[in-house]
Amino acid sequence: MAMTIEQLVLKAREDRASDIHLIAGLPPKYRKDGQLEDMSDAPLTSSDCVAYARELSGTPEAYDIYLQTGELDAAETYAGNRCRIHIFRQQGLPSVALRLLSDKIPNLDMLGLPPAALKLPELHKGIVLVTGETGSGKSTSLAALLDYINHTRKAHIVTLEDPVEYIYKPDKCAINQREVGKDTMSFAAGLRASLREDPNVILIGEMRDRETIETAITAAETGHLVFGTLHTGSASDAVDRIVQVFPEGMQVQIRLQLSMCLQAVLTQQLIPKKGGGRALACEMMVVTDAIRNLIRNGNTPQIANAIATSAAIGGQTMDQALVRLVRSGQITREMAMTYAHEQDYIKKNA
């Protein structure tokens, strides 16, 4: 008999796992400290996976969408734990990737972010990007940043998410959380509409297309504070990714606009710690006049050097962050080498 969703989520939470994977022909698996491990010995049957997909879809209509399109996103609470759900078809059968979200939005100062990141909620306009691969803690950092604003400023926050992950409890702020596919058709449509909703702060769950990025820049230029995410491994990659979404004839103009409205880029990696658990390593780019010039002139390869020399205002490269984690005894030198951009830097300094 296959474990119920409630049992799976309960076990994953007790064992401090981040994700659950349900695949026909394999035992249920979960991700602990970045590694996949079996949750039981018994492989799941195709009928088990169909039953999971039906239950996790929530409604027959949502399950029909999965049947028609081959995938479905949702968020729901199981065993008292909010979960982000992705159901997808592979080889004709449903598979599930389920992310366990924290019950509570963590305090900003508990995450291990660089000191300069703790000042981001004080900004009143411009774009702040949080980047990193899937599962690097971007959603958690953004939730903590927005919740800090919620408790410290009288403002209107509008979020556009796919799906809604953390649920905010309004304190000093008025908060509207809109889910793509349910409350609005797309990130771009929701973002365009948000400019008519009198927001102070806008969160864009993913800046994935030209229209969304263009509207985000417009929002920043018109005095809004815009938080967004990208799947890039460094600040310079984030700049390039945004510019390359546009046709060549527009790229000079976009570089100019981005150089004026980009405030900061925080890039995250979660690194396996000595003795279990994971440590957060962050690259922090605070946009200086020198960096604005590099963005404007298309000299993005030089951004890493500019970050490395901006320690006085809180800048740090990913490799500098890794060296700090090695020196504080949290991660091994070998692990730092695995995650480094420049291995020679780790060899010389860690």
List descriptors.
Rossmann fold, 7-stranded mixed beta sheet, 6-stranded antiparallel beta sheet, 13 helices
Task: Give an account of the 3D structure.
The chain is an alpha/beta fold and 350 residues long. It has two domains: 5-100, Beta-Lactamase (2-Layer Sandwich); 108-316, P-loop containing nucleotide triphosphate hydrolases (Rossmann fold). The chain is built from 13 helices and 13 strands. The chain has helices spanning 5-14, 46-57, 60-69, 138-152, 187-194, 210-221, 235-244, 248-261, 289-297, 303-308, 318-327, 333-339, 343-349, and strands at 19-22, 29-32, 35-38, 71-78, 81-90, 93-100, 126-131, 156-161, 174-179, 201-204, 225-230, 262-272, 278-286. The longest helix has 15 residues, at 138-152.
What's the helix and strand layout?
Blueprint: H1 5-14, E1 19-22, E2 29-32, E3 35-38, H2 46-57, H3 60-69, E4 71-78, E5 81-90, E6 93-100, E7 126-131, H4 138-152, E8 156-161, E9 174-179, H5 187-194, E10 201-204, H6 210-221, E11 225-230, H7 235-244, H8 248-261, E12 262-272, E13 278-286, H9 289-297, H10 303-308, H11 318-327, H12 333-339, H13 343-349
Parallel strand pairs: 7-11, 7-12, 8-9, 8-10, 10-11
Antiparallel strand pairs: 1-2, 1-6, 2-3, 4-5, 5-6, 12-13
Query: What is the CATH class name of the largest domain?
Result: Alpha Beta
The CATH superfamily name of the largest domain is P-loop containing nucleotide triphosphate hydrolases
Order of helices and strands: HEEEHHEEEEHEEHEHEHHEEHHHHH
CATH structural architecture of the largest domain: 3-Layer(aba) Sandwich
Multimer state: single chain
What's the average pLDDT?
94
- End-to-end separation in angstroms reads 50 Å
Structural class: alpha/beta
Number of domains: 2
Report the helical percentage. Answer: 25-40%
CATH fold name of the largest domain: Rossmann fold
Please state how the strands of the largest beta sheet are arranged side by side.
9-8-10-11-7-12-13
Strand content: 15-25%
Question: Low-confidence parts lasting 5 or more residues at pLDDT below 50?
Answer: none
The tally of helices reads 13
